[in-house]
Design goal:
four-stranded antiparallel β-sheet, single chain, 45% strand
């Protein structure tokens, strides 16, 4: 991992093309990455913190998934022919044992979970880092007897080529997997399964629907051809697919409809102004409505605003100039009772006379929910 300008303690990855091999992110925005040759999982908390070695002595770790929060936080690791679970909770280093969740006896590349907690894995035949043909995507219920084996798969999607990355879109109902979508990146072996990105729907049935969405040759000016055996993907909060096609050294963004020839429609379970604000629920059970002072303040270009909702209901958090004109709607939706943190990015608010973000000035932000209303001042300094 290249050291940032502020970080004098980087991670000493093994000098191997397979390290780091996979990364994921937890509920607190911390990044985890696996080192295949050294059998380690590391965590990067931010640009200035010293990276932490969370787990050691894992056989050939590849794909990672973090599930849960706080005392229920768990890290799932694809390790050779197994999926292992580390009950890490709030610790910086695993002190207990690793639980074996799946024992499939083959090459497991990636793991992900749907809204109901069912586990999906991408599998390849053979051993080692890349494995061999053919490949499979399988779904498992891990609430019963563990470890699960290949005979416990709720469904199996057969690939003639090599499946790599898994991405998950939660759908409109975030407590049900019926409207979830699983995305798969696939290296082709025959024309029967073209290369690129696929989606799997109807996941709660025994026969999911597989659709081919995209191939690299669809990109004007792109490298085209097949994808690399290690090409990965992810899904952003708006449901857009970000495809890392490292065969041609391309990152491809499959976004909502536009003028580009490659464009696919997806929908987010949460509506928000992309690039203006992000909303994160934080721990604690509030007893009253509270709007806290933003921090840092003054700020440029981003600041955090925390608030507490004692009751569920419609919530409005908006920013106004000194004349009372609305300049940004950070929250404007129904929300559950709880504590929240909003990150406000003033760069993406257009000025009245053009772009460039909010000008240096004093502004006010107001939280409204039911009969509760409170206003505080924030200052942009450039």
């Amino acid at each position: 991992l290249a050291q940032s300008g502020q970080n004098t303690s980087g991670i000493g990855w093994s000098e191997d093309v397979s390290a780091p091999v996979h990364a994921t992110i937890d509920d607190l925005g911390r990044v985890y990455a696996s080192d295949f040759p050294r059998g380690q999982v590391w965590r990067m908390d931010n640009n200035t913190a010293v990276p932490k070695r969370i787990i050691s002595n894992i056989p050939e770790p590849k794909g990672l998934a973090v599930v849960g929060t706080g005392a229920n936080r768990k890290i799932f690791v694809c390790a050779a022919g197994m999926v292992l679970r580390a009950n890490i909770d709030n610790a910086d280093t695993l002190s207990g044992r690793l639980d074996t969740i799946a024992l499939l006896g083959t090459n497991i590349r990636d793991v992900i979970f749907d809204d109901e907690g069912f586990m999906y894995v991408n599998i390849r035949s053979g051993t080692g880092f890349d494995g061999t043909l053919p490949g499979f995507t399988e779904r498992f219920n891990i609430t019963g007897t563990l470890p699960v084996t290949e005979f416990d798969a709720l469904f199996t999607v057969n690939w003639t080529g090599l499946p790599m990355g898994l991405g998950h879109w939660r759908g409109a109902n975030t407590t049900s997997a019926a409207d979830d979508i699983i995305y798969v990146s696939h290296r082709s072996a025959t024309t029967a399964d073209p290369p690129g990105v696929y989606r799997l729907t109807q996941l709660t049935t025994m026969s999911p629907v597989r659709e081919h969405l995209f191939r690299p040759s669809d990109v004007p000016g792109g490298g085209g051809g097949d994808i690399n055996t290690r090409a990965d993907l992810t899904v952003d909060p708006s449901g857009n697919i970000v495809f890392f096609e490292n065969g041609n050294e391309e990152i491809i963004y499959l976004e909502p409809p536009g003028s580009a020839a490659v464009s696919y429609t997806t929908k987010s379970a949460v509506t928000f102004a992309l690039g203006t604000s992000s909303v994160e629920q934080i721990d604690g059970i509030p007893s009253e409505f509270v709007l806290k002072q933003n921090y840092p303040n003054p700020f440029n270009p981003t600041t955090n605003i925390e608030f507490s909702l004692a009751k569920s209901g419609f919530v409005s958090l908006k920013v106004y100039d000194v004349l009372g004109k609305e300049v940004a709607a950070l929250v404007n939706d129904g929300m559950q009772a709880g504590n929240y943190r909003v990150t406000f990015d003033a760069r993406n608010i257009p000025r009245q006379n053009g772009g460039g973000g909010l000008a240096s000035a004093t502004y006010f932000y107001t939280l409204r929910s039911g009969s509760f209303t409170q206003t505080k001042k924030l200052i942009v300094v450039k």
